[in-house]
Amino acid sequence: MARSAIYLCCLLLALLSLPARAALDASQLSKLAADDNDAKVAVVKYLASHPSPEAEAVLSAMDNDALYQNQGHLLIVRDDQAIDAATLQPLGPVPDSAESIIVNNRLRGAVQGALSAFKLFSSDLTTRLGAARDVKQDPRPEQLPLIQQALVKETNAEIRQDLLLAQASIQIASTNEAERLAAVKILGATNNPEVRTKLADMLIQNNGQYNEASPVVRAAAQQALKSIDLRVSLARAAASLFSGLSLGSVLLLAALGLAITYGVMGVINMAHGELLMVGAYATYFVQGWFKTHLPQHFDWYVLAALPIAFLAAAGVGMVMERLVIRRLYGRPLETLLATWGISLILIQLARVSFGAQNVDVANPGWLSGGIEIIQDVVLPWNRIIILGFSIAVLVFMSFLLSRTRLGLFMRAVTQNRAMAGALGVPTGRVDTLAFGLGAGIAGLGGVALSQISNVGPDMGQGYIVDSFMVVVLGGVGQIAGTVYAALGLGIVNKLLESWSGAVIAKIVVLVFIILFIQKRPQGLFALKGRSVD
Amino acid sequence: MTTSYRYFSKSVWLAMGVLAVGLLIVLPILHLGVDKHSSMYVSSYAITLIGKIMCYAIVALAMDLVWGYAGILSLGHGVFFALGGYAFGMYLMRGIGQDGVYHASVPDFMVFLDWKTLPWFWQGTEHFAYSLLLVILVPGLLALMFGFFAFRSRIKGVYLSIITQALTFAAMLLFFRNETGFGGNNGFTDFKRVLGYSITAPETRVAIYMLTGLVLLGALLLGRYIVTSKYGRVLAAIRDAESRVMFCGYNPVSYKLFIWTLSAVLCGIAGALYVPQVGIINPSEMAPANSIEIAIWTAVGGRATLIGPILGAVLVNAAKSYFTVSFPNYWLFFLGAIFIVVTLYLPHGLMGLLSALRRKLSGAWK
């Protein structure tokens, strides 16, 4: 009983002595004046483990190259006035004989690491949170006293959690079994790969001896590893599902226009990829206009680009339909060749007017960055927004097709051209408008693509095979089929990619489609009814 | 397509004879036997260019057999051409022996990949006869397999075109990979010798050139034999009304499959002749754009005429050589315009135009 009381007293004393030890040990400090870099790093570690205003002042002076020595005595220079480094007492003007203390890169790294830990005591919540993140990412043993001291005062739950993890990551190497056990139990909540390695290390047998002697700690480590692995693999799976959805949404944007021109009208448009390119260049054009005329609203240029890209691509499409495609209805193979010719001309036009190089389309602020679900797994905002955008375009298109007069006419012309004409539907104009709509949707796709990939004359060529695959797989004349096919292909492609590499994944998907078409030439979703050639 | 066409009129036979003599006998003599500074000298550039175009003409002819006579528009014939080229290219690569940059026993690109021994599919490629066998078998088997699945499930028209495009696209991606073992991006180049003769020697060049001309001539005669035979008539009937032919008791699958495979083999042979003349083969030959260009050669000349596609391949490629040197910026405009003009205004190509002109003239005489 008496013994524990003594312990308690000692503990109290120790706690009290922390803030009491205000002035720094001058003999330690004076080592900074020497030329020995190892010694200097040791001093920085000493400072980091003795948190006090003086230590922070010395460290930040080192970081700013404001630490001087005058005959072995350390000075901090602030506004041309010297301050004693150990006591922070002003000493008057800087003596002429003072020399700057050289901080090399290794030392600077150590200094900055120590300083970041000092931010744990800042009064600003976000600074503290940032500092806690930093120590959690890269915990160093010399920071342990600081972290423990910060834990005593810290009230914010999020920061406490980060600090506890950091403390545990350090204490996992402790010689005290109870400390190790506590640390391992906490570490089940970390995602830090280095910590995971340390935990796994404990379970390795060396000459019949486990690296971790205590079976209790080993069991806890096993448990912690399991929970880390589960969480990481879940996050990875979510990320690869997301990138599949994202690829699917891009394919969907590229293929939705085709679903109208090919799927509904039966026109093979090999220049479809180039209509995407027209949309992307329209975005580039609008970006340039915003830069010179409305630089203060630059962030919103993408929204302004949407209608312009739609109209530009729709215009090109309608001209194509009037001049060429119109004369080739009912001759699909010839349409294919003629539209390929158009695509060559459009590519060369882009090359002549904008140069053969890719042009630079910047992401506005709200499209950059992303959400980090766990360390190193980020869902970028531009992909998330494009996913939403493709859904919006889909809704817009199905609204047009099912709820407007134009959509009604389009469906009527597709189902029975002669009858629709007899009832007074201007079939020729409906064809032009429908083709324009398909082209315009490709233009919208181009705006989205400009935000995630290169904008250049050849950009459309890469999408043409993929988007035809989507339409073929989805089934002709089926918007719903296109949607499922695009998302399905995107996800399958990405899942295969993580398992076999990008090229093999693509080849496997193409081969799969070729085989699939064998079984169901009409696609996933076929129109019911008979078609006799 | 109801153009009834006599294969061929007397004047066509005569023109073919004159051309064959001129290209296969006179030109080689002017290249080998005339002094370099003489105005009669035919440069090695010209020989290589004409040889290359003759390879393309074989491909256009092969395309005509499937598109013109069986109605199958392939947008993937480039893959067969390139496979033939790669098959023979393997032999040429082995012919380099240890004279490569690294003086290794494996081709230079394998040294890059740190491969010490040849992969299994390179075994035996040092034998000329075996590589010739590969030139025929590889494109032929791929075509046979692909065609069997495609025709059996009655895929035709635009669907088939798009799937053949996907086929060549997939093959291109595969060959772009270094690990596939065909030199990746750079493909095969830097050949030294064929059958022991230096590949850059004028005599070797002329020999391959003459061989190409003979193969072209042979392919033309074979094509004529096929399309005038009973088999050719059934094929044309399948093209025009597949269901009816089927109801008459024929099985279109085997008819289509034969001509499709033959066409692929012809492309493979053309590719094998192309590689030693041009000195390089790489995966860009399998780019979808190249395959579509083959279709336009055929369309320019006129489908289902045999002579027409050869004419188209010559004209389009001569124009390409001219434009890409003199007006590089306008070549794609010109090519694009050809695609549009031919499909809109010349559905029967130049041959159709010629026969229409002749009809008009003879009508004026009467």
The SS-based structural class of chain B is mainly alpha
Total helix count of chain B? 14
Q: Helix and strand string of chain B, N-terminal first? A: HHHHHHEEEHHHHEHHHH
Total separate domains of chain A = 3
User: Biggest sheet of chain B: strands side by side, in what order?
Assistant: 1-4
SSE topology string of chain A: HHHHEEEEEHHHHHHEEHHHHEEHHHHHHH
Overall, the morphology of chain A is elongated
Largest sheet of chain B: 2 strands, antiparallel
If you average the pLDDT of chain A, what whole number results?
A: 81
Output the structural class of chain A. Answer: alpha+beta
Strand proportion of chain B: under 5%
Main sheet overview of chain A? 5 strands, antiparallel
Count the E strands of chain B.
4
Into how many domains do the coordinates of chain B divide?
1
User: What is the architecture of the largest domain in chain A at the second tier of CATH?
Assistant: Orthogonal Bundle
Instruction: Give the spatial strand order of the biggest sheet of chain A.
Output: 4-3-2-1-5
Can you walk me through this structure?
The complex is a heterodimer of chains A (533) and B (366). By secondary structure, chain A is an alpha+beta fold. Chain A has three domains: 18-117, no CATH class; 122-213, no CATH class; 240-519, ABC transporter involved in vitamin B12 uptake, BtuC (Orthogonal Bundle), CATH 1.10.3470. In chain A, 67% of the residues lie in helices and 6% in strands. In chain A, the strands form three sheets. Chain A has a five-stranded antiparallel β-sheet. A two-stranded antiparallel ribbon of chain A has the order 6-7. A two-stranded antiparallel sheet of chain A has the order 8-9. In chain A, strand 2 (73-78) and strand 3 (81-84) form a beta hairpin. Chain A is elongated and about 100 Å long. Chain A starts with a helix and ends in a 14-residue tail after the last helix. In chain A, 40% of the residues are buried. The model of chain A is unreliable at 12-22 and 528-533 (pLDDT under 50). Chain B is mostly helical. Chain B has one domain (10-287). Chain B contains 14 helices and four strands. Chain B has helices at residues 10-32, 44-70, 77-95, 108-113, 128-152, 157-176, 202-228, 230-240, 242-247, 252-278, 288-301, 307-326, 331-345, 349-365; strands at 188-189, 193-194, 197-198, 280-281. Chain B has a two-stranded antiparallel ribbon with strand order 1-4. In chain B, strands 2-3 form a two-stranded antiparallel ribbon. Chain B is globular and about 70 Å long. Chain B starts with 9 loop residues before the first helix and ends with a helix. Chains A and B meet through helix 14, helix 19 and helix 21 of A and helix 5, helix 6, helix 11 and helix 13 of B.
